[in-house]
Design a protein that fits this description.
This protein is of the alpha/beta class. It has three domains: 72 residues, Winged helix-like DNA-binding domain superfamily/Winged helix DNA-binding domain (Arc Repressor Mutant, subunit A); 121 residues, ATPase, nucleotide binding domain (Nucleotidyltransferase, domain 5); 154 residues, 2-Layer Sandwich (Nucleotidyltransferase, domain 5), CATH 3.30.420.40. It is 38% helix and 21% strand. It contains twelve helices and 15 strands. A five-stranded mixed beta sheet has the order 6-5-4-7-10, sandwiched between helices. The chain has a five-stranded mixed beta sheet with strand order 13-12-11-14-15, with helices on both faces. Helix 1 crosses helix 3, helix 2 crosses helix 3 and helix 6 crosses helix 12. The radius of gyration is 23 Å and the shape is globular. The relative contact order is 0.13. Transcriptional repressor of xylose-utilizing enzymes.
Amino acid sequence: MIHSKYTIRENNEATILNAIISQKEISRAELSVLAGLNKASVSAITKKLLEDELIHEDRIGDAARIGGRKPIMLTFNGKAALTLSLDVAPNYVEGLIAYIDGKVLYESEIRGIKVSSDNVLTYITEMVEKLSEHAVETPHGITGLCVAIHGLVTQEEIIFTPNYTLPSDLKSQLEEIYPFYVYLENEANLAALGEYTFGSISDSVVSMSIHTGIGAGIVENGKLRTGKKGIAGEIGHSILYPDGRKCPCGNEGCLEQYASHQAIYSELEQMLALPGINSSVVIERYKKGDPVVQKTLRTNAHYLSIAVNNLAVIYKPDLVVINSSIYSQIPELLQVLRNNLKGKFSHGTPVVSSSLKRKATLFGGVAKSTQNFLNIQNLKMNIDS
C-alpha cells in the first residue's frame, strides 16, 4: 500500500497530539520514545502544533526524568477552539457550547415542544444563536456543530425517526446556514461516544439510552460501531413480545413499546388515572413508596436486563452504561437489573449509570466534532462534568 508523505506526516501529527493529550504533560524526548519517532520529526511536529496553538510549552520539567538538561514540558491547549452540541428530541432541544476539551461555557434547553419538519430549523437556529452569544475568542473559533437525532442516521442522512418527523436532508440545510462543519448522528451513538471520551476508562463501551425510545451506542477503541446503514445498536426494536404492541418501525412487540420512558408514563397514567406523568413524578412517587410505581419500575428493570443480556452476548463490552433520567435518580433499580443477568455469558457484566447523566449525548457531540477537528479517532479526555 502506498501512502503519501502528507498522509504520513498528518498521521504522525495526530499521534503526537494524542500522546500529549493522554499524558497531560510530556517532554519532546519522552514523546520521541512514546510515539516511536526520531527527535527531529518530533521537533518539527511540535513546532507546527505550537504555531497552530494546539499545544503550549508549559514549564521546565525535572532533568531526572530523562537525564541531561531539564526538558520543556508540553501540554494540550484545550481552549484552542469551540464546539456546539445539540440534542434534538421529539419534545425538547438541548444544547451547549464548550471548548474542545469538554469544558462547558454555557448550556440551554427548550422543553414542552413538539419538534417536526416544519419547525426543527427554527428551534436549531434559535438554540445555536443563544449558545453563540456565549462564545469567546479562540485561535480556531467554532469548529463544528453536532446535532443528535433520536432515530436512524446513515452517513449523516436521517433515514427513520419513529417518534417524530424530520427532513432527511437536515444536514445540508444547516450547512447552507453555518460556515462551520455540521455533523448529524444518532443520539445513542453520541451518548456512547461521550461516555468513552469523557466518562469511562474502558476501551469497549455500550451505552443504552432510554428516553421516548431505546437505543444503544457501541464504541470500541474510540470508534462507533454503527453497522450497515447505521442499524447496529437499535436494541429498542428487538422483539420482547412476539405479536405484541405495534411499533412505528413496522414490527410488533418491540422492546421500546414496553421499556422506554414513554412506555412507563403511559402505563402509569392508565393504572393511576393520573395524566401528565413524567420522570420527576415517577421518581417522586417511587421514593415515597408507591407500590404501583415500584412494581412497574422493577418490571422495567427486568425488561432492560433482557436487552443488556442480548448486548452482552453479542458484543461482550467492558462496560454497559445506562443513560436514563429515572435510573440515575433511583440507583437500586440498577441492582435489580444486574440481579436479572443470570446467564453464563452475561452474568458479571459491569452495568453502571451514566457518570455524565443527562449530558452524555451532548458531550458525545463535543467528542465527535473534536475528533474530526484534531484527526484523532480514539480521543480520551477527563473533565469535571
